[in-house]
Design a protein that fits this description.
By secondary structure, the chain is an alpha/beta fold. About 15% of the residues lie in helices and about 30% in strands. The protein has two domains: about 160 residues, 3-Layer(aba) Sandwich (Rossmann fold); about 90 residues, PLAT/LH2 domain (Lipoxygenase-1). The strands form three sheets. A five-stranded mixed sheet has the order 1-2-3-5-4. Strands 7, 8, 9 and 11 form a four-stranded antiparallel sheet that branches. A hairpin with a 2-residue loop joins strand 7 and strand 8. The longest helix has 25 residues.
């Protein structure tokens, strides 16, 4: 039984008899997309973990792409009716859009077991444990026999628009050069499954011999990495023409 952002008002904190609960089926998975408090944030969805697996994409409260201005949201590619609904309840409705996308991407939407969304952004919950990570949505039940905890809270990021599936990579960059400079470093991944766009992994003071760690939520499953493109820019004219390179780049897939 899959709960798509189960309702918060009149249901959250009530006895299990009157709301969705893990006791309602052999396997219950939940997608929380609008779990901010109803007052004052008008969150329609429940925030508490109530299933065998509880997924909190993007933290479960504010979904990427739902902060568009009203005109662009209502005059949507999917039509006025879809756009108007998204303007009124965009976060709430993301749950079924993620679910429908999960049918198309059986290897996508990996949820990482974590104490909170803030902890998910650090290295603490990466990569997946030995038993793997469950997939949010249609294929969540593949994880059915592997649940050890009473409630499993899972976090992941999604795209702003269709297609919503993203694949998480940890990128570790050791810089080389002669002097420190200010600027940013971009990385693009190339692999057997496809290539990513450029992602900014470092910004600020760039020091040679220093190692920097960042996460990329890529729009494709790169597969086996065959090449990494490294690009840096100091964002300003510098008469000394400083040079900066990568002594080493390590890419780790969250899945394996």
């Amino acid at each position: 039984l899959s709960g798509l952002d189960p309702a918060q008002p009149y249901f959250q904190g009530t006895p299990t008899e009157v709301r969705l609960d893990k006791s309602d089926a052999e396997f219950v998975d939940i997608i929380h997309t609008d779990s901010a408090p109803t007052i004052p944030y008008l969150g329609f969805g429940m925030s508490t973990a109530i299933g065998h697996l509880d997924f909190y994409p993007n933290g479960g409260e504010q979904m990427p792409g739902c902060g568009k201005n009203p005109v662009s949201q209502i005059v949507d590619l999917d039509g006025i009716w879809e756009g108007t609904r998204d303007f009124v309840a965009c976060n709430h409705l993301r749950s079924y859009k993620y679910y429908s996308d999960s049918i198309i991407y059986p290897d996508g939407f990996l949820g990482y077991s974590c104490a909170s969304y803030d902890v998910f952004k650090t290295e603490s919950c990466f990569p997946c444990p030995r038993e793997g990570c469950p997939n949010m949505g249609h294929f969540a039940d593949k994880f059915k026999g592997k649940i050890k905890n009473n409630f499993l809270k899972l976090y992941l990021n999604t795209g702003e628009a269709k297609d919503f599936a993203l694949w998480r990579y940890k990128v570790t960059v050791t810089l080389s050069g002669k002097s420190k400079v200010k600027g940013y470093v971009n990385i693009a991944l190339y692999g057997s499954g496809g290539n990513t766009r450029q992602y900014q992994v470092i910004e600020g003071t760039l020091k040679p011999a220093n190692t920097y760690i960042s996460f990329i939520d890529a729009e494709v499953n790169v597969g086996t990495v065959t090449k990494v493109k490294f690009l840096w820019n100091n964002n300003q004219l510098n008469p000394t023409f400083p040079k900066l390179g990568a002594a080493a780049i390590t890419v780790q897939s969250g899945e394996n």
